[in-house]
Description:
209 residues, mainly alpha, 0% strand, globular
Amino acid sequence: MLEIAALSVAVSVVATLLAAAVAIPAALWIVHGRSAGRSVLLALFGAGLGLPPVAVGLAVAFMFWRSGPFGWIDLLYTPAAMAIAQTIIVVPLIGTLAVISLRTSDDTLPMQLAALNVPRRARFFLIAREVAPGFAAAILAGFGRAVAEVGAAQMTGGNIEGQTRVLTTATMLAVGKAEFGEAFSYVAVLLGIMAVAAGVALTLQRRWA
C-alpha cells in the first residue's frame, strides 16, 4: 500500500509541477501579453478542459509504442510515461484557472508597475505574487485531477505491480476481483492525500493573502 501511494504522489507531483511550469507563464502571457496568438492559446486551454483522458493516454501510448515515433526511448509502461500523460491532461486546467485568477485580480497593478518603469519580467513576477493564492488553488486542482486519473494511467503505465501500479489503477483491479475492502482502503488513502494537499494549499493561501 505504501509503495503504491508513494508512486501515486510522486507521479502526480511531477506532472503537476511540469504542468504548472507551462500553464502559469502561459496564463500570464494570455492576460498581460501583447501577441495576437494569446487568443489561440486560450482557446486551446478551453478545448483541453474537455479532452478525454483516454484520448491522451492513447496518444502517449502510441507515441512511445515500440513501433511508434518515440518507441526507441522505451518509456511506455513506466512512471515517466504516466507523468507525461498526466501533464498533458492537467495543463489546460491549471492554465484556465490561472487565467481566471489573473483576470479577477487588481487590473490597475500592471499599469502601476509600468508607470514605475519596472522591467517586464519583474512585472510578471510581481503580478504572479499578487495572485499567488489563486495560483495555489489552480495547482491544487491540477494535482487533484492528476492523482485521480485512471484511464491514461492504465494505458501508459500498464498497472504493473511494483512498477507502475498507482492508487486508482489498484482500485480498479481490486473492484474487478470483488475485493471491495481493499478497494475502499485505496480510496481512503487517496482521499487522505487530497486532504493533505488541500491543507498545504490553504496554508500557502493564508500566508500570501
